[in-house]
Structures
1.
Amino acid sequence: MTRPRDHSHQAPAIGEDGEAVRMIGRPLARREDPPLLTGRGQYVDDVTPPGTLHAYVVRSPVAHARITGNDVAAARAADGVAAVYTAADLDAQGVGPLPGADALPPHAQNPHFPVLAAAKVLWAGQPVALVVAETKEQAADAAELVVIDYDDLPAVTAPLDAAAPGAPVLHPVTADTGTAVGTNIAFRKRLSAGDATAAFARAAHTVSQRMTSQRIAPVALEPRGVLAYEAEDGRLTIRLPSQRPHGARAAIAKVLGLPADAVHVITGDVGGAFGAKGAVYPDQVAVIAAARALHRPVKWIEERCESFTATTHGRDQVADLELAADENGIITAMRGTVHASFGAYFTPSAPNSLLARLGPMLPQGYRIRHFDVELVGVFANTTPIGPYRGAGRPEAAYFTERLVDLLARQAGLDPAELRRRNLIGSGDFPYTTVTGLTYETGDYHAGLDLLQEKFQSQSSQRSRPAPPGQLLGRGIATFVEPGGIVPKVPGPDGTIGDQATVTIAADGSVTVAVGTGGHGQGHETAFAQLAADLLGVPDDSVTVTFGDTDTAPFGYGTFGSRSLAAGGTAIYNACQAALAAARRVDAPMPAAEAAARLGGIEAAGSSGALPETYASGAYGCEVAVDPETGQVTPLLVIAVDDCGVLVNPLLVEGQVHGAIAQGLGQALTEQVSYDENGQPLSASLMDYAVPFAATMPPIESYSVVTPSTVNPLGVKGMGESGTIGVTPALVNAVMDALTPYGIRHLDMPLTPEKIWTALHHPTR
């Protein structure tokens, strides 16, 4: 994405005293906002080339069935219809299935993901046909004429039910060998260290709990879509709202059997993603294949109700976990099992949310020495799971922080004091956890202390007032957030790392091109700010470009709180290379002056194979619970984050606020539900309750800074901390309020009905 520079956000690089002004650390306003707020943004639906056709995706109305026949003749004969495609039609074009998961344990099931269903449908909403017509309305009308014959099969939707013996099996044979499979369990992986059995045998205190992190929907402001057409040079051009443009290009080329350089991906503006726009979807591939076959532009834009069954969901895990502690409340061991549903098929990185995030992150910031947890992945007749803001980290923090609160209650300790006794000390870094992760830096006690200080400084005067007769509660949670991951997969040049280029023109203007891009976070602002600081130029002289595989260098994309650590490091190294070129001019001078003398400077940089960063935080919530209705009212949220060096504190605070809203949504209202036949019960915003601005409590955001030692900027990931910290803090606060009633645990979402029933009919 490239935008004209907006001089209203100019920040000089030279102060009045002639000294350079550091740009890093300044709360500059987002340069992205004026174009978007004045209607100058360009999303995929804003682009309609002449002659564009429109697609409609025909989806399965049932969750599990054999396809016994189809009849598309009437649809093909309908007014304005250019083509109707079934699985057989795409197969004749050589359009292959989508690949399964990127990485799995040995002997795991990894079924191919069909673009259009051929023999079976495995979830309500799976694409079965594509209608292409001159208008959206004609495509929708013709879709009503498509006849698919289904032979219904029993459906299973819940993780534990899907894993149980005798459950209806989704994938009865393996994709590679055709071997018979009699279970929905896709894989098992055990993480074990020390001797958990012995630690539990000698423990003074043990707690156990079954906990659910329910299935939720991303609900980005912009639904998904795609526009595909053949450019004048014969290449396939695809406008796709994607978090990973280079990854999308590679995936599309592979499925269509094309070389990567025959595909050009442009993201344009992306209206939110939260992980759900990282993968390429079967419906998008079908549209792209139609454009190739018809030699005309084809566009498809997802409807909101469609998104609730077609776009990947998040979470959907059930944990049975235990903690053991000695007589002083020192946590010694954790053990148990986590079942995670991945829906009908794996999306490429979904299993990593369990295998590389949730499981390894269960120790959080605690000095646990003994660990034995089995991770179980299962298939079910539901929309496939994908990464959703946090992707395994919120679930790990929720499960562990609920257990820690239960342990504090059993041991008779204050929840903050129990955490203080068990947190890794600031002098212990770098610290390798019992699951093998190495946290590079941190000061977890400082974060907890700052949270307690703010809580104790008359927080009730700052919070939303609670009506009389309400039950008041307060809860806290601490967490660790891994980020900045650089996949160990070589790019097109055979090296590992995100790439960036910096061009300083003779007139002093600077263009930064980077392989990672934004979808609402403020990348243009942060990257321009970073380059201006490093090069000693005004902020408004820097243009940032990304999201176009023809003009942006290779990058792995934006996900997992990685953009500043990885993409920012690539920019740092490119700027250092530009400065080195400038220093080759005889007289000492700023880079812009050297560029003028040299006729311009061009330089490139890479992040290289960076280790991950580990941010941390301590969050607290105050709530009021109405015992007559069960309604929970959040009164105050206090967020303390350590994301290393803050390049732009304003952007950090914005990320905290947005993530807190999503975390509160999971804690209180959001849940994707199905009936016993696999029919979705929450397929619209009338049935799926997201937070509103009016329901948000006051939020106070504070920082502790321990710079990372694994990248030259000292930054750590930040984008998902709110979803990680606020959910367990709020649930702990509600459980604190319900303590007089003897209620030990309730699963999310904490709806009024659920709480009222627990208060008035505890045995129900």
2.
Amino acid sequence: MQDYAIYLLDRSGHIVSWNRGAEKLTGYTTAEIVGRHVSVLYPSDAIERRSPERELKMAQESGRLEDEGWRVRKDGSRFWANVVITSLHDESGALRGFSKITRDLTERRYQEETLRQSEERFRVLVDGLKDHAIFMLDTDGRVTSWNSGAQRITGYQAEEIEGRHFGVFYPQAALDKRLPEQELAMAREHGRFENESARLRKDGTTFWANVVMSPLYDQEGVLMGYANVIHDLTDRKRAESLEQAERHASEFLAMLAHELRNPLAPINNALHLLELKAPADATEKWVRDVLHRQTGQITRLIDDLLDVSRITRAAIPLNRRALDACALVRTAAEGSMQWIQARGHELSIELPPNEALTVLGDEARLTQVLHKLLHNAARYTPEGGRVSIAARRENDEVVICVKDNGVGMDAGLLHSAFDLFKQGQQAAQRPQGGLGIGLTLVQRLVRLHGGTVEAHSAGPDRGSEFSVRLPAVNEAPASEAAAPERPGSTPRKVLVIDDNSDAANALRMLLENDGHNVRVAHDGVSGLALAREYRPEYLLLDIGLPRLNGYDIAASVRGDPELRHTTLVAITGYGQVHDRARTAAVGFDHHLTKPVEFSALQELFRAKA
């Protein structure tokens, strides 16, 4: 019995016998321990509480006492002991002493404490997972545990839900189909069940959940219950819905732009043809000017819609270089004079006389920003008003301000001025017009440049001010390369394939007037046949053609050795980045978006001279 310490005590608690197991467990020999009080084996805190005397008294009263607690060895080390104390009596019932049997349970105690700490850490970990509902079910599907994530996601407190069937989280339609019971059965059958479906909160609202359910078995394979982990996917679903809506909107805008650009192309080309002849009278001149202005406005609206779509999808590349902000202001002011003069406004420009204001950015896009702000100022200022644009340096920023004395903005409009499709109050006839996307474009383009834009107004009829802040850089603006001298136009063999006969014929007349030899086809099959017969230097090709589309024609031309020197030019209403990438991939040399500026075609023809 060397694994047990067995010894006897007299009535006062002094040790009177000592076995080998006791020597092994405590380190005391028989000679060292016999005659000493049993309290020598107790920690000091237990002695202070008089635990030895209390245990002996309890054993005397009940005949037997079993307990566990810390004991002390001869070397001062502690061990966890299971102790059985039995009172001993003579024939007359008088107390003679006590027997004690002590067993060392330190290793078991250590394992139990390790397990307890592990369970506590796991409980803290599970309870700290706020984004996941983690809870246990018994074999019947009733909730037996509940973490803080489950409380946050479902709205139930632990005391409200523990003991209730987990079917409470299912919509009525799912309960009618007995889905909770089916899912428990599938978890038992396959060892795990996972799906995504709707669940109910305490307040009756629905959320989209990823659910993982696993059955739990004991060592004998008996089912103990189920572990459930639920992840709330509502935000992800909402984001996916927004992405899908955004994708559909982009596709719609691209299609809308294509359909609007197609009729614009022949109108634009017809206007170019009219410009080749002097107007017959003042009325004809006025008509031409109106048509030019309105087609230009429609083109700008289409471009704005597509720019919003591109920026939303981060699909606008920026050609960044060091730019002179003062030059940007002057260019934007010059390009905005048509709007300023049309409404009889006074425009003032304030620039520092001897200070360099350099920013890093895309010249075309920053000019577009200032154009939008000046256009807005001109449009929302009554005729004969004042508009100003100024630039200055503030610490590490270049600040460009556009100010007017127009209709101003109230607090509500100031707060939402940069929201998409948001406009100030207009009369029913909408004298200012527009789609309400200009300021959205301004804000997003400025953000792409690492800057900010703010709107200020003292209130309705007290004017507005927009401040664009861009990071200043300490390098010299990139110098503009001198424009090369343009050679004269060389007659070219040109083939135009476009199913819009008005667009094709207007372009043909423009090109012929410029000295080129032009053929025209109105569908893909006849166009490809004419290309092989005519062998043009330039093939101006629409994409959306009947019978054979522009991509197929391009592939056929690139595969024909007789047409290897033909320059392929896509002329299409599709102008987004992926559209350009696709035309390049099938072999187009250039991609021009309708309505094409005739000067761009002239430059293209000159470049091959």
3.
Amino acid sequence: MTTPLQRAAAALDAPFAIGALAVVVFAVWLAKDAGYAPATWYTGGLFLVALAVVALLAYGRVSVSRPALAAIVLLGAFAAWSALTIAWSSDRGIAWDGANRTLLYFVVYALFVALPWRRASIPVLLVSLSLAALGIGLVDLARSIGNTTDFFIIGRFAAPAGYANAACAVFIFAFWPLAYIAARREPPAVVRGLLLACGTALVELAVLTQSRGSLVAVPVAVVAYLLIVPGRLRAACALLVVALATILARNTLLDVFDPVRLGSADADDAIRSALLAIVVSAAAVFVVWTIVAVVDGRLELSTRAVRFANTGGLVVVAIGVVVGVLALSRADIGASWRHFKAGYPEESGGSHFSIGLGSNRYDFWRVAVKEFRDHPLRGVGADNFAEDYILERRSTEEPLYPHSLGLRLPAQTGIVGTLLFLGFVGCAGFAVRRGSAFADGAARAGAAAAVYYAIHGSGDWLWEFAGLGAPAFAWLGLAASRPVIATGRMLPLRAGLALAALIAGLSFVLPWLAELEARRAIQSWRGDPARAFSDLGRSRDLNPLSARADLLEGAIASRTDDLPRMAAAFQRAIDRNDRDWYAHLELALADAGLRRWRVALAELARASRLNPREETIGLVRADVAAKRPIDRDRIDRLFVERVRTRVGP
């Protein structure tokens, strides 16, 4: 029998080093807005692409199962189709970013499914990322004391993602591997207790985000988790301990909401109390579960008893599903549906959970369905949602994404893209290894985390956070990978995957460099506008599909009162994407400043057709019609104030 030290030493081989470097990238993304910003995920993505090329070409032993090979081909075809949608997208710049993000997920899945991992390395990789997520969350919560506006949005803990629902997903995604490994007999008792304590802290951090979507996603994910992992009764017991600890701490955790939202003097004390509650809960779980692990390690059950226990766990899951269905059938479905469709209710205090499930998602989804009806075969293009929503909306929100992976697929990639992705999901699920050994079970817990990501993402825009999406595809690939003893030499596969990764890298380079130039301009324009304009010129040349450089140049020119440059920049932005209502509005402001009143009115008419509910257009039109000077700073302040009312100061 090998010792834990021997198993750890066995885990440290070439594939593990590659996996560890990838996990470092994932962790950096988690710490930086969960990898949402293009400059962030392009940088890490290029590193992962280089890592994949080197690993696949230099490491000779590569082999995948037939279902995994089919999954690679289908995901690659989906990524290629996403890139093809750039051709018919109205905003081709954001479509290129969206297609590249899909390419990133393809590279990550292919890398993790193709390498021959030593089974001992799998739990190490899973746990490392989960502990990194916990450390980042706790540090951010501690840093929020005295500085809540950088870490909370309207009373909800939003770090590290900058969006509360995505922050919740970060913590819950990281929870599943810890909970499962803590439930197994193989790790030492103290390690088991420590891992479940860390899992408890992750769940309680998620409570601070007060994600209403998690109230639906997490119960469904629990059922999926218990169906996926071996040793269901063990896994369920660990979940029960975490749930009890979280319930006991819930009042202290929820009490953070009102003081932070209202900006009261008690906010810092409430955060300190929440931190203390998390520490105490984790310590209690550590003690209890370590004792359970010691007792568990001394029990010897027959194979028949283990099989009976697992069957019992499945029965418990089935009973839970039946009870949930019965409870749902007793609920007033009609009233709940009307509440969901009604939009955001007013915050009533006490907890964000208390306002129910009302939001504008129904309206987002209505427009996404219309996009699919209008473009059923090929969709409107990757990440092209904002302009259609602005045109068709019934709310005052301006989302960039439809807040649903299930609707993103048909609306943006059509029937073709949807079938390719669903084929990938089916093959990837079938490729997951079914063994009950410790490492295989841990890998399946990672796959369960990926399933949770998909469940929660079915009602939110989690796809756009590379710090969530990339680990989800990595863990899914890891669960389908073959052990080192089963590998062979498959030169065509290695060469093909390396070539695909190289193509992805080439597609990343230009928009990445363009974004770096744009960021440099944003940082320098106040002190050196000429340099900023030069940086934006290079950004425009590097990424000719995107209007971002021109929009930034126009905004800076407005601030520096360079009206001819402002007009030229926004005209170039319109030439790239004539459906951008904001560019038309700003061009009208420039024309009005140059006393081209008739031209300004024409641009305002175009902006109004593209965004009929925008009140600012009417305010500007009144001034232009009267040939009055327009205070552009006042217009900017209106937009800033609108953002503040939605996300806080």
4.
Amino acid sequence: MTEANLPEKLARHLGTRVREMVADLRDLVVCESPSLEKSSADRCCALLATKWRKRGANVERLAQKHRGDHLRVIWRPAGASTRGQLMVLGHYDTVYASGTLGKMPFRVKSGKAYGPGTFDMKGGLVQALFALEVLQALKVPLRKRIVFVWNSDEEIGSDSSRKLIETEARRSDAVFVLEPSLGPRGLLKTARKGVGEAELIVHGRASHAGLAPEEGINAVHEIAKQIARIEKWNDLRRGISVNADVIEGGTRSNVIAEKARAVLDLRALRISDMRSIEKRLRSLRPVHRGAKLEIRGGFNRAPLEHKVTAALFAQAKSLAAKMGLMLGEATAGGGSDGNLTGALGVPTLDGLGAVGDGAHSTHEHLVIQAMPQRAALLAALLATA
């Protein structure tokens, strides 16, 4: 089998496995795995581990105290000489609480599979399973060992898995992220905004609003001035957005507000802009005499910059063309664990997961006919990267 016709053969083989892919998807979806419910998440982790062991992979379950356990799955063909490592990255946790299946059951209708986590991102997990399976079935020689990392807390910030992700990424020559694709055309995500949250707290001084207003320092007035200042930092053309989306302050209408706070959503497409925003936040000074400012937080995921993804996308586009598919790219406003690996300078390609729509909603679904195509694309990337 030549490298030229490999993608087509992978796709043809996987086209006969659709029924099995849907069955595995059903298994994972009906095993609910909320980020914040460890016992439920652990049941899904155990199911996922079983499915990988059936493929002959080396599975390591990494126990966590408060979150679901993480999985590190290693595939190195017996007797094969491999140099280097490729990483496949994804999460099995979802935003849906246990019991969601009661009102949002797994179902197949009109070529789509519906249910909590189908699109984001249990469909991607199934595609990875079958990508490995087809490589085994066709005895495709691999140049590098493959490490699959499945974490349990991506939807809540990846605090317990970040070290694991970054450690494996540093060992890897490339990272393939199985987050859902973008839009009906299944666009890959070749850039993502960096994401963060900051809290701006203003400390003023309380006073009677009628008897002694001059003795007070109004924290609400001060934070209003600061928000107006921060609003001017927005530059949508550059991909910079800073939004005050939660604001609180004061106690009663006749008391000068002693304290106020605003929670800011921070996003930027460039690492340089991310650093600039954080510097400007910490350079804020009070407008009203006597007011004090306190800044907490900042960016927790750096941007996934296009330069880190460009070469891998070109390779993926070429492989897809050999399967008769037109592959496009897009920029995503939200972050993923691919931001973590890209920030390390490791070539990273995101959005390789399911094609569908409705993430985090009651109509979440994936397109079934796209599953074998995406699995074949991932398999081709793993064989040629």
